Amino acid sequence: MKETSFNQERFKRYLRKIGSGEQTSRGMTREESADALELILNGDPSPAQIGAFMIAHRIRRPEPQELAGMVDTYLKLGPKLYSENNLHPPICFGMPFDGRKKTSPIYPLTTLLLLDASQPVILQGAGRLPVKYGVTTEELFKGLGLCLGGMDIQKVQDGFSEHGLALIYQPDHFPLADSLINYREEIGKRPPIASMELIWSAHQGEHILISGFVHTPTEDRHIKTLRLLDEQNFIMVNGLEGGIDIPTSRISNLKFMKNQILNDVKINPREYSMNCKDLEFDDIATWRTNSFKALQGEGPLYKALVWNAGIYLWFAGAVQNISIGMKKAEKAIQSGSAKKKLNQLIAWRNK
């Protein structure tokens, strides 16, 4: 029997496990889930098997140990980033890879303010992906004049070591994962891999993992998964469109793990005079205009930027509370140092 046929038979066992119906289907072990995803990424199962697996897994929802196994495989086969000894533990933002469509992203600007405060940031994403085909991290930074695509992983590592910013861009750095885009399109739904992407980071070592979500069951499942993965510091954010942008229109309930203790935090923008409607997203050109206005201390994104930066400076331990974090953010904007940080990154990239 050829090796590919053997691997297809092996994969069939996993497919039977999760696709046998409501009464008899059962979860895979962590090791089985890791093996199943590795087979998929290597292209061993047939297209019919992969499609059936993704649909069956989505219907029954992946269990925490299955998600942990999938992360294990991404850690094994995917790109890797390392921190220099003098860098603070980076913030790793976990957001839906299929982007944003409804609300204006704030996180690229928040990232600049965190970098200005010497807080490293790691982002990850892909090109336009189904099912949402929303605007991507790479496109947004390009709109600001900073091209973060088209670099090999060593160039990304060099930039991270020098400036504290990295974008793990799937087409450049993880082509095995990028090969699954057609399946996302053909099944018409986010596969379980899309959920796993929110809690995976290419960074090796100590970091703060911040993951967005929409539904409470997802939050609970991800917390259990991150415990299995022995993540020491993480934050779960019910952010805009399942991302990490904290809304100004409503109270946000967040959970964060620090020193192996899980805490609940309720943050009300009204208590900080930061409540306002979340800005809709029109197009990149409009977003670019509003972003540069925000970096000048004005425009419809400014308040949301100060709000988000203040909270994340607090979570990173750079300030004692949110109010001080917002003041620090305002100072960085008014002094022009946040805009200067962007220009430094652009100059580095244009070398």
UniProtKB/TrEMBL annotation:
GO BP term, example: L-tryptophan biosynthetic process
Domain Glycosyl transferase family 3 N-terminal: 12-76
An annotated GO cellular component: cytosol
Recorded superkingdom: Bacteria
Database matches in InterPro entries: Anthranilate_Pribosyl_Tfrase, Glycosyl_Trfase_fam3_N_dom, Glycosyl_Trfase_fam3_N_dom_sf, Nuc_phospho_transferase
SUPFAM superfamilies assigned: Nucleoside phosphorylase/phosphoribosyltransferase catalytic domain, Nucleoside phosphorylase/phosphoribosyltransferase N-terminal domain
Keyword Glycosyltransferase: yes
UniProt entry keywords in alphabetical sequence: Amino-acid biosynthesis, Glycosyltransferase, Transferase
GO molecular function: anthranilate phosphoribosyltransferase activity
PANTHER family: ANTHRANILATE PHOSPHORIBOSYLTRANSFERASE, SLL1634 PROTEIN
Protein name in UniProt: Anthranilate phosphoribosyltransferase
